[in-house]
Amino acid sequence: MKSIILKKASDYLLPLLLLFSVFILLRGHYLPGGGFVGGLIASIAFVLHSFANGLNETKHLLRIHPGFLMPLGLSVSLLSGLYPMVIKKEPFMAAQWMKEPLDVIGLVGTPLFFDIGVYLVVVGVSLTIIFTLAEVA
Amino acid sequence: MTSNLVIVPVLWQFLIAVAQMFSWFNPRLQRKLSVSGNVIQVLIASWLLTEVYRQGILTMNAGKWPAPFGIVFVSDTFSAVLVLITSISGLAVSLFSLANIVEARMRFGYFPIMHLLFAGLNGAFLTGDIFNLYVWFEIIIISSFVLLTIGGEKPQLEGAVKYFTLNILASTIFLTAIGVLYGLAGTLNMADLALKVAAIPNKGLVEVTAILFLVGFGIKSAIFPLYFWLPASYHTPPAAIAAIFGGLLTKLGVYAMLRVFTLVFFEDPIIDTLMIILAGLTIITGSLGAMVQTNVRKIFSYLIISHIGYMVIALGIHTELAVTGAVFYMIHDIVVKTNLFMVSGLLYRVQGTHHIDRLGGFYQYYPRLSLLLAIPLFSLVGVPPLSGFWPKIDLFKAAYLEGGSFITICLAFGTVITLLVIARVWAEVFWRPAENLPERPNFRFWHLFTLAEKIQYITPIALLSAVSLIIAFRAADVHRISQKIASELMNPKNYIQTVLPDKSAEQQ
């Protein structure tokens, strides 16, 4: 199915949804949101793009295989937990925060990196599953 | 003592898995990472055990949240010993996988999943939080399901469906029990639960919760009457995978029982009686099942069930002597059962079948190899001076002095039948002349193997046989450690005080 409306809309929706997913990721520490939901929204953006333009277009857009995001995300999360343990001699996963909040993003600490890891894993897993199923079908 | 060392065995396995996922398309590198990683894992585990031995119980509050609120990881001697034994078995299995798992299976991520399974096992042994224990159980069940189905042969899928259905049921019951317990006590930390459960006025509800835990862990450790998933699934995957499952997964359920019923729930005659009856029936049905089977791996599967009964029945006696026997038996059993399934893999490779009616002449053609295989087989029976003999002294002593005639009869019955079964396997597979061996034109038989592959098959079996010989000849030391573990389990005051330093001071 090639629909010119969907195709045109997805061109605008892809960056918008990705921005929204990052917004959800960043607001996640004290408010509803976080890496898991953000990751799902980001993968929805790519799935929508693949509906409109075909799977190969989306794969071309992504450049890397989505499966690669899984170990990448896992290692980001793992390192955010290891950082306090190895550098600061504190328990595993003990949160380390910056003293001053950054503009726009807010206070940055290791929990944010844990969430970024979750975000990457969720994007990787859901896109791998959906792309594999789409290829088989 | 707080120490970050407690979490290192879990994180290390996790790190190996992540590193292997980065090299997803390079099974060659994954193999190297797996073996070298597991060698280091054994060193880490030994380090943890020596530290625990020197400094006493180690704890770590994850995320710096203080004990009853955050998740706490605790390593007492029991946990540390089990992590060490798991690491040694893990090393053997990853060596055995090199030649036993074909490249096609490795391409579907065999090694990363295996290391996630080990991370889950170590996590379950080290956690001090009952909900976290559930989470590790889930990690293990998900990884084991992938391992069981990898390759996608028809019998594998059939076994996996049975395995998964009953294990998910067990997880649901376990989760329900945690929910009820949280509703009663308002905490999930096991040390805190130990203090609070004792103070709950409604003893009937506590008893029901305890039975829910017993059913949940019982299904996972394959005790009567819900053990049918085990012999239906353990003979389907390749030998290396069956070795992990047979050696470690059912023992995890026993570990959870030992932990929960000594720490969280106080001694209760109804639960103990129930445990003794169920375990007695487990021993009897398991050994009878082993008698009638003709597939070597099914025989070993039923023997697993039968021997799970030994440990659970000892927990039912609920004295320090009995628990010493259970812990000692568990140490011996993990090593030997892992080894047995690898032995079955070797037999299959040499003679091309699992059926004892068709196997034969092994001793005639491979006398030295047969002597090696005799070690795990006769350790399992408990022929003195091999490793199965020593824990049984404690078990029988406890059964005779503190248990009663039913328990003694069950233990004796199980032992005699195990002897008969292993004698039958020995006579049919090793002594009988080879007449009926299958001819399989496309099968890669043992004599076609390269030297490297032969070494990869034999080294892990020799390694675990050596470990069980060490357990046998240093039985006094292992017994001393088991005694220490049993006294820690039966008197959890020290455990509670280490995990909750402020709270236990308040109570006094």
TrEMBL record, chain A:
Family membership noted in the UniProt record: Belongs to the CPA3 antiporters (TC 2.A.63) subunit B family.
GO cellular component entries: plasma membrane
Membrane topology: Multi-pass membrane protein
Lineage top rank: taxon: Bacteria
Residues covered by the Na+/H+ antiporter MnhB subunit-related protein domain: 5-127
Residue stretches spanning the membrane: 12-30, 36-55, 67-87, 107-134
Protein location: Cell membrane
Record-linked InterPro entries: CPA3_antiporter_subunitB, MnhB
Protein name: Multisubunit sodium/proton antiporter MrpB subunit
Keywords carried by this UniProt record: Cell membrane, Membrane, Transmembrane, Transmembrane helix
Automatic annotation (TrEMBL), chain B:
Entry's localization field: Cell membrane; Membrane
InterPro entries the UniProt entry points to: CPA3_Na-H_Antiporter_D, ND/Mrp_TM
Bilayer-crossing regions: 6-26, 69-96, 108-127, 133-151, 163-185, 205-227, 239-258, 270-292, 299-317, 329-348, 369-386, 406-427
Metal-binding listed as a keyword: no
Major location (coarse): membrane
Keywords on record: Cell membrane, Membrane, Transmembrane, Transmembrane helix
Keyword Thylakoid (UniProt): no
Lipid bilayer topology: Multi-pass membrane protein
Domain NADH:quinone oxidoreductase/Mrp antiporter transmembrane positions: 129-418
GO CC terms, sorted: plasma membrane
Coiled-coil portions: none
Top-rank lineage group of the source organism: Bacteria
Family: Belongs to the CPA3 antiporters (TC 2.A.63) subunit D family.
Matches recorded under PANTHER family: NA(+)_H(+) ANTIPORTER SUBUNIT D1 (PTHR42703:SF1), NADH DEHYDROGENASE (PTHR42703)
Name this protein carries in UniProt: Multisubunit sodium/proton antiporter MrpD subunit
Lineage: Bacteria, Pseudomonadati, Bacteroidota, Flavobacteriia, Flavobacteriales
